[in-house]
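Protein modeling request. Please complete all fields; requests missing the sequence field cannot be processed.
Requester role: graduate student
Desired output: 3D structure, token encoding
Chains: 1
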Amino acid sequence: MERVIKVGLLGLGTVGSGVLRILEINNKEVTRRAGAGIEIKKILVRDPGKKRSVQVDPKLLTTDPWEIIRDPEIEVIIELIGGTKEAHLYVEEALKNEKYVITANKDLMALAGAELLLLAGQKGRNIYYEASVGGGIPLIRPLKHSLGANKITRLMGIINGTTNYILTRMSLDKADFAAALKEAQEKGFAEQDPSSDLDGKDAAYKLCILAGLAFNSRVRYENVYVEGIRGINLRDIFYAGELGFTLKLLAIGEEINGGIALRVHPTLIPSTHPLAGVLDENNALYLVGNAVGEVMFYGPGAGSMPTGSSVVADLIDVIRNINHQVENGIMETDFLEKRIIPIEMLSSAFYLRLEAVDQPGVFAGLANAFADEAVSLDRIIQKRSVQGKAEIVLITHVVEERSFNRALEKIKAFPAIERINSLFRVVES
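Delivered output (429 residues):
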């Protein structure tokens, strides 16, 4: 008789509904690949009477998490409630009760993943979190397994669908920031409070998870330099395109001389770069390994079915491990403590748009301020002159950030400079 693995589901929102739908429509395939039957024994919900997008037997629903977590028949807990406080409590208790845990919770894994993975190891269990980054794109599994023969030296990702949708609409439709955000909200790609997305926090959490695996290092949220996309102007989108660049919110991780540098910020990348073609709500991760070379993963970064697909893939892995009596797979509890390189010590090119009094000597003054700090200019152009004011756009060659910042302070003090309108880092490759 086929063994049946009993599962407890915490949360029946967008992703939870996708999980149930996939288990229904792909039941034969999932069961065959897992090597056992799957029974969702109980589902935690806040409101059992709520109308749902999937049909569920009301007898499966409960508002009591402990009924699920402490049930000795349930071997696997799938956590899909989001947030950190309750999720942390439930996952911790599930591990103490020797359950396998699957989660799509990026916040939880970024902030408390290290301690929870340690607890899982102590209990002979594991936490599976493929769905925590990249929605339906397989990223965690390739980093842990497929690319295990490589030393990853660099990763760059578009890992927030909301901001990528906004920047795409600004670029293709010439919509301003407010209009693009409103459209993203209307289409369900942005929350009503999109602060975590717009301010880069969501991408930073995901970078913590990816960089930890890529560089075999403990990564904390406070180690990541974060800038969001608020205030990005259509003029910069236009000028970037004119200069052969595309503006994206990138999450970047690099290992440099044994240290790691982690940052999330708007970035100009060449329009020929693979990441430049990642449009709308899609996500992508670009990696460089010393054996494989350049690799990119691309696909839907969110959504009920794509994210549910990753959750169910983890469930298949869990059941295979249970069937083969594998107590835990590749664990992250042996991560190293590596030196964090502050952004001031990193080098890149810079894009600067400023407004100046249209008078002789302005270009010379700018050139002198940059020359004093050994910052060389790749290109400098005057875009327009209106009522005695000139708009100047320039791109530097690669320079250490602290040198550029010193030059920028001198420029701000130059009497002819009216205002610094925008500043972005440039990644040439």
